[in-house]
């Protein structure tokens, strides 16, 4: 389980490193909460977050109920079978801080991705920046005061047997203004098995399109693939190989290694049912 502060760095070839800061901490159920990761300032942070949790939990349960009905099932089917019930599902707060960046064409707040959690509930500080991918184009998500943005993640894609799509999205940064967003991640417990709902695939109704996988394995695979597929890892491996080789042979080895890494990444992306 990931909780605490994190800094993501993206290197600008001219100006060095740009910092993007995050704070993670669980907000529900109580057994998952560790207040050591909650900020002490402002003093009312805990009280406000606990009140917000009560409201956002009710909202998420309504949305999941509507999604369940959209599959032709009763309102409780998705949250019970997919997330283990109201008391088993986990809610995590993620606060994003995107500082201004003068060269907008050189950095993204977050690279394109789909979310490994079931639902993402998002509000921002009136600074636009979220984009979603549709029909081979990126579209800006309009900021609407008092509106909450909801994104479907990988587990609901699997649970719905592909009827609901996980949203490919990314974030951009402003040139002069700081962007912040407050995100609640709704997800199954890590030992839950993520699979198409039995009420959709049982008794020959539909052919399952996804293999069963524990939520823990799904997250680990997705995070691992995201890390090892970054160019920096290819570069580090190439440097290590060059230190062991000399002359033209080293360049040939580096060329071979870079191509091998690309092939492995393509193989892994097709072998694992990422969803």
TrEMBL record:
GO terms for molecular function: metal ion binding; oxidoreductase activity. Keywords: Iron, Membrane, Metal-binding, Oxidoreductase, Transmembrane, Transmembrane helix. Belongs to the iron/ascorbate-dependent oxidoreductase family. The chain crosses the membrane at residues 248-272. This is Fe2OG dioxygenase domain-containing protein. The keyword Iron-sulfur does not apply. It comes from the Eukaryota. The lineage of its organism: Eukaryota, Viridiplantae, Streptophyta, Embryophyta, Tracheophyta. Residues 89-188 form the Fe2OG dioxygenase domain.
